[in-house]
Amino acid sequence: MTSATQNGTAKLTRKDFASDQDVRWCPGCGDYAILAQMQKMLPELDLPKENIVFVSGIGCSSRFPYYMNTYGIHSIHGRAPTLASGLKLANPDLKVFVITGDGDALSIGGNHLMHVLRRNIDVTVVLFNNRIYGLTKGQFSPTSLTGHVTKSSPLGSIEQPLNPLSVALAAEATFVARSIDVETKHLQETLLAAAQHKGASFVEVLQNCNIFNDGAWHHVTKKENKHNLLFLEAGKALRFGEENEKQLKVEGLGLSVVEGSEKDELIFDPTEPSGALAYALSRMTFPEFPVPVGIFRQVKKPTYEQGMESQVQQAQKKKGQGELLDLYLSSDIWKVGGDGKVPEDREALKKEICG
What we know:
The structure is a single chain. This protein is of the alpha/beta class. It has eleven helices and 13 strands. It has helices spanning 31-41, 80-90, 102-106, 110-118, 164-170, 184-196, 218-221, 276-282, 304-319, 324-328, 346-354; strands spanning 3-4, 10-11, 52-56, 71-74, 95-101, 123-129, 175-180, 201-206, 229-232, 239-240, 246-251, 254-259, 291-298. A hairpin with a 2-residue loop joins strand 11 and strand 12. Helix 1 crosses helix 6 and helix 2 runs parallel beside helix 4 (110-118).
């Protein structure tokens, strides 16, 4: 069903973005909530379905394109950012989403993720972080905590976990955010802000795998633990706690937790160019610090597509529009089959190539 907009045109609804495929995730998986909020958010972009593409890699999260009534590509392990980059550069009018998991994006895909972010290509990357490999049945992932016992680390993982937010901020992504699968309103608003951002946007979603890593985020998802969350809001103080009685302060080159009055509050600004405070927030670890969620960084910079288009225009201004066939004929060519002879006359050669 559709509803009418103020100008009389049909407005898409969540149902319009749901495909006819049966959603096949484990019952209780956090992926269902992410799918629902994405489908609810997309109508707010006011884009035709034909202009939206979802690209995924490998993993439970990467089934996502099947469940969206848009264009989609279920690609190969870790390479979704690469395909998404090509799509966006070939057709800048497309709205391109990359759906990935902590294993897909941060192991074999780490290189590709870093470069799509640093180039500021206008794509939206949504990373589902359940701190485990789910599709391959419970091995430790790049975000699994040190000491975590899994099928591939029976004595506990000895690896230092990667921090997705810190990686995205270090790669100079112009939009970086975090939300949680069960915080549905917050998740929908965060996805919308990321999708509306012009440039590379990155959203980490803390997501529960109730089969292989159940309760990984219970310290913030259980009702009695909500005071462990710090909601980032532009222009607001960095306060948290059951009665909002705690706040963050800058101490040396880092942050500390204090209980104090409203004076000298640390006010958060995601548009601050250096991103120093955003990075410090991303490095906070529980239980010494709260778990921050919201928009960490939101700055404006020229996109990769804009730079590429500018160079194309400069070249055309200097050398003219040009023809693809002229490019083919600009170097040595040879003919396969027949007598093997290449016509010397340029017009005859064009005719033979073009038919």
